[in-house]
Amino acid sequence: MTETIHYSAPGRVNLIGDHTDYTGGLVMPMTLDARTTVTGQANASRVWNLVSHDEPDSLSIDLPIKDPSSMQPRWGRYVAGVLFELKQLGINVPGFTGEISTTIPIGSGLSSSAALEIAIARTALSIAKVVLPDVDIALLCQRAEHIASGVPCGIMDQFCIAAGQPNTATLIDCHTLDIQHIAMPSEIEVVSRFISHRTLAGSEYSDRVTDCRHIEEKIGPLRLANLGDAKKLSDQRLFRRARHVISENHRVRNFASALADKDFRTAGELMLASHESLANDYETSNSAMDQAVKTMMSEPGFLGARITGGGFGGCIVGIRHSSSSTIK
Ligand code: GLA
Q1: What totals of helices (H) and strands (E) does the chain contain, helices first?
Q2: Which helix or strand (DSSP H or E) is residue 40 part of?
Q3: Which atom belonging to ligand 1 lies closest to the Cα atom of 14?
Q4: Which of 5, 26, 47, 303 could serve as a FRET partner for 79 with CA atoms 20 to 30 Å apart?
Q5: Which member of 157, 178, 229, 261 is catalytic?
């Protein structure tokens, strides 16, 4: 009898360090309790048949895949992108029949697509009997995301989901791909709050990536730049984008130190400063997200709050005194 296998991968929320990963900066996300699960069995064919409990239309993929970006239904592009990238690495995956379910709210900025990619990659690697390090799984899933969504995302979501540990923040240097696991102090509760649906495909996300490329053509790598370098930019929009990235990298470092020192007031202030920078300099917030941060901060016990992830909607994240991580 063929063995039934289950692989699951969590969503993520980013505590601090947004729009820094695609210039090799610092980020500090953590995994959520909500997960995407793939269950099924390998088969002797060269076909992947999947049904989703959360998306319409079943998926049937003939291997090898020629064009994952045109797969229908659309959610199948994430699956096809992963199988395509595995093939590019010379990994031959057998057929599979299974189902997918998720408790991560889709389209809410909590990385449901990256969780799907990682769960599919782990399933496919298991039936192909191949072991890859987490960082390689993350990189192949990042390429799959580029193919599937057309969004030139960084490595944060896939790497946090592949390598993160429960109740632990993951400090990632997106240039060296070094990670540090930082246990969340028990005095602090992380609260993620859904505000509005969004998709990064077709958003201004890729415009921000392009702005950063233009900045780096003029002043060199943003991860090494300081405010003096940014001031050399005559274009005021590019100056503000650079100021966000440079200051956000500092905030991530200071946030990690503040948590280590149990200086939660400073950690909260850094989150608020991050939100201001994303709203004013990077322009990835909107009035509903700004208002949601203000509302959260008016509630008892909150020390800091900010928009989290790609922006243009999605979720906010805050910290308050307490002991566990929740989605509310
Ligand atoms: C999205 C992308 C990430 C990252 C964030 C912003 O979540 O997938 O790579 O760029 O936006 O920090």
Answers
A1: 9, 11
A2: strand 26-43
A3: 12
A4: 26
A5: 157
